[in-house]
């Protein structure tokens, strides 16, 4: 049985007919070709599929797409504005915080939720906010630096 | 640090990093083709059993199912690294829980999954063996009855058909008994290491298309496109060039994505249906159907003079390679060569065995045997230091490899930055004046790794009509930054900027041969090939420019894409003019070619392990870890980690720091958090809730120290660095714990339970002395 759902993704509206059991992750990837949400463990532990739902980070593998109707969904494809990378993307690149890059979209989105909520997070807060996003390449050192640097730049720019 | 280079030695942004930051890059899991089917594999539920019957009629009747394949559809070719022992799908019998028994292609993943439940397999269970020491006994169940038929590379393997020993290698030097007789102190211990999983964030994924002309096209997140091509062709019994492997972006590999896995069943299904077939491992299948790090049992006896000078090292090393070799036979080869550690030991006796069991196969895993053997050899150094009351740093420096040292195999070593690594780490933690605090301890250890011999790389460098340079290799960037490093090497050599280089993705139809992203080899091997190809291109460019400028090639300079006559800057042409002229007007397109072979490597003598140059290069490292230990709960908190690495020459320091930091944390996970737990061959924790990998809150920042001892054979002196940092962490943690609470754990992983038991045992042992 399919249900009509309107998903608001990166400020664009999509009218879809979806089975109730479809995870948001599959709909983003398979129906909307937004593959920046990554398939990692599909059980809510790795964070590679993180997107923002009304600004809050969620594991999109563990959210039903029909339940995301009417909410603002932000994926990695939606955070650069007018071709300008988001300060977090810039900082991740500059600090060398991206290696294989598979976890990067999820980490950047979790970090975005943090810096949108707190303009001056300390290192412990950054570590706490990112602990749901596994990264196997970097050991996190450069990721933490990147988030702190981006937060600082965003404060300076604001 | 290098100051006289224009492009290398600089922490430049990676060439592919914007694509990764924006999610606009195609990994294996993202590949989508018209008409594509989705595959799922039915895996063995038995650790060791004969397959009596497979009935999949009901699965075929399920709407949406297009094909089912089993071992009967497999042409029967076997593949492997240096020992071809593995079929794509189980033939006649299964050897581990998780082995592919049948595979289904259907219109979507859910239908394929449902179809699996409609396949019934009747097994006749066979006795199984899970302990490698038991598997070596004559009465152990035989896992590969036809070992004598398997093809293997002479020099790498000493198989023992009729047993479970797939490889038995030795290292012999000096007179081991005399060495121990002369020793003032001898320590002997048994060390154990465990299975871990690579946990690449991207699971194994591929799409395979059997083409109308009989060719097979594979899109795969492989680390080694040519090795995958060779394995798949061998398994399908077709010529290698009938297979085309297109490398996708790779979401982490660490050794886990080197060999043929799900591409095999997907190829059989595509051959049967004529449609592209996609397959992606679930996270569970990553644990049950991919590869692990080899568990090991190492018994080691080491003797030294009373001043700490090493005299003798005797060891028996046993590796559990599980049901198939994967690369176990080569891991053993490196382990045997590695056993004494980065120290001069005049008398050495090593017996190494790689043994089949009914576990999921172990394979290449970042460090390739060296984390296991370093766990043992550094444990011995600590034990000797304690026995002799010598400072742990001092005993290491006293015996450390240096320029001109002779290794256990008889090699005279060059470009050795080991002592500097030890000293830099010691300085960073203020070793000689370190503060003593209750419950706190610092461990400082050293280690090495060689890069695997007998690999090859080739590179093409093309001048485009716009003057920009196309770089074609089959190197794979799985996050280490090799695309950028190679582009930096090409730019430096040609005399252009990094922005002038375009790096092509590996495609076995167009990019030249490469042995892959294995053994920390790409910077060294592919880097050399690229450098030579760039020299070749430059000569062709100068020859063309000389004609255009009516000058002699030796009077020309290339700078920033301009070729001018030395001293006459007005007489100049641009690379764009040359690129256009040579390709469009002269019909002499410029293509530089280069390659790298380990042509000076001598395979060790099988009877003694001796060789004047067993491997292309060694890299050296040292690490210090500070821990805080709660003696009541056994809780271990890593407070600090310093990791120093001799990378020869840092091509891109930013990437190297990243490798060092990431590797160190993977090593800390191996030491303290991660363990695949088996029950009669079944992985009982095949998920990321029960198998914990390090998160952002588990460990502190890793302080990376770059040491440069330029290697005479490396491109601009560079060596690889990818694996090293993972190797020593566990040994460093053990030393730090011993420093903090005075107990030593030689059985990995180090858990609170083991630590509390050890503390309790020590207290009991000390109790009579107190009364």
Plain-language structure description:
The complex is a heterodimer of chains A (158) and B (771). Chain A is 34% helix and 17% strand. Chain A contains five helices and five strands. Chain A has helices spanning 24-31, 87-94, 104-117, 123-129, 141-157; strands at residues 2-9, 12-19, 50-53, 56-59, 72-74. In chain A, strand 3 and strand 4 (56-59) form a beta hairpin. In chain A, helix 2 packs across helix 5 (141-157). Chain A is globular and about 50 Å long. Chain B has 771 residues and is an alpha+beta fold. Helix content of chain B is 28%, strand content 25%. Chain B contains 18 helices and 30 strands. In chain B, strands 3-6-1-14-11-12-13 form a seven-stranded mixed sheet, with helices on both faces. In chain B, strands 9-17-16-15-10 form a five-stranded mixed sheet, with helices on both faces. In chain B, strands 18-26-27-30 form a four-stranded mixed sheet, sandwiched between helices. In chain B, strand 12, helix 6 (225-236) and strand 13 (243-247) form a beta-alpha-beta unit. Chain B is globular. Classes of the chains: A alpha+beta (158), B alpha+beta (771). At the A-B interface, helix 2, helix 3, helix 4 and helix 5 of A face helix 1 and helix 16 of B.
